[in-house]
Specification:
Layout: H1 4-20, H2 22-34, H3 41-54, H4 56-61, H5 70-86, H6 90-108, H7 111-116, H8 118-123, H9 132-156, E1 162-164, E2 167-169, E3 174-176, H10 184-201, H11 205-237, H12 244-272
Antiparallel strand pairs: 1-2, 2-3
Helix pairs in contact: 1-2, 5-6, 9-11, 10-11, 10-12, 11-12
């Protein structure tokens, strides 16, 4: 059981953050609801809480030695919040939540507790949508790459196709690889799954890093395959195969296949670099 002093501190942290960041949190949840690229945000908070709960014994054993260095971190977090609110920059105001939380933990409990909670706190970054300027810099190249993969695969099976930027022109239909089809949604989701899967499956940091890194090319190639498959289905079965339910369902199929690929990569790592006993 946690000591009353620890419980009181935890209650203070939660109450303070809830009060100061209420409006920021409401808008963040609204982004999870309305932006399909970040719907996984609903899973991030429960998982982060689980990761923190998993470390409860280490937290109980750690010495409580609050550090005054937590105050500058706390002030920095509040400054980020004010800068984000005054500049209408949602990313800054959301990231400030983590800096403020880290500052409070450091001030009340000290470095040991902050080190123990470092991973759960860092994991919460995945719930925050990246700024649009960065998002667009990532999404557009992915759109072009997916278009090129689709063009190459469709041409390889003998279907005539003309690519103009991110638009594939087929004999019976033109397919636009829009931002929603760039693959960034599956990329973000697969990276998140890769982090969680690696965390539970292997304690070695380099293996976890490799699993997460593998999610990037797997997601990009899988999305290119989806674009190619959509073009082929549209040519062979009619334009309706590229729309509505069939289009959405293909996204789930490709995502599941991509995750299976990550599982296979992890299996290969374990096969050629098995874990040591007791490790």
């Amino acid at each position: 059981m946690m000591k009353p002093k620890v419980l009181a501190g935890v209650a203070l942290i939660v109450a303070t953050l809830a009060l100061v960041y209420w409006n920021v949190s409401i808008r963040l949840v609204d982004a999870w609801i309305n932006d399909g690229n970040y719907s996984h945000g609903f899973l991030i908070v429960p998982l982060a809480l689980y990761f923190a709960w998993e470390r409860r014994r280490a937290l109980e054993a750690a010495e409580i030695r609050g550090s005054w260095l937590g105050l500058p971190v706390l002030v920095f977090g509040i400054a980020l919040l004010l800068a984000g609110l005054l500049g209408s920059e949602l990313f800054l105001s959301r990231v400030s939540l983590l800096a403020t939380g880290a500052g409070i933990v450091l001030f009340l409990y000290g470095w040991q507790h902050l080190r123990i909670l470092a991973f759960p706190l860092a994991f919460l970054l995945l719930m925050i949508p990246i700024p649009n300027i960065i998002f667009n810099q990532i999404a557009f190249p992915l759109q072009i790459f997916a278009s090129r993969v689709g063009e190459a695969a469709i041409t390889a099976v003998g279907i005539p196709v003309l690519r103009e930027g991110n638009v594939l022109i087929l004999p019976n239909k033109s397919l636009e690889v829009a931002e929603a089809c760039s693959g960034i949604r599956s990329l973000v989701s697969l990276i998140t799954l890769g982090i969680v899967y690696g965390y539970f499956m292997d304690p070695r940091l380099w293996v976890r890093g490799l699993i997460v890194a593998s999610a990037i090319p797997v997601a990009i190639l899988a999305n290119g395959a989806r674009v190619a498959g959509t073009g082929m289905a549209s040519h062979w079965y009619g334009p309706e195969a590229a729309e509505g339910f069939f289009h959405e369902f293909s996204g789930w199929i490709v995502f599941a296949f991509a995750f299976v690929m990550i599982l296979a990569i992890q299996g290969l790592i374990v096969k050629f670099a098995p874990k040591r006993r007791g490790g």
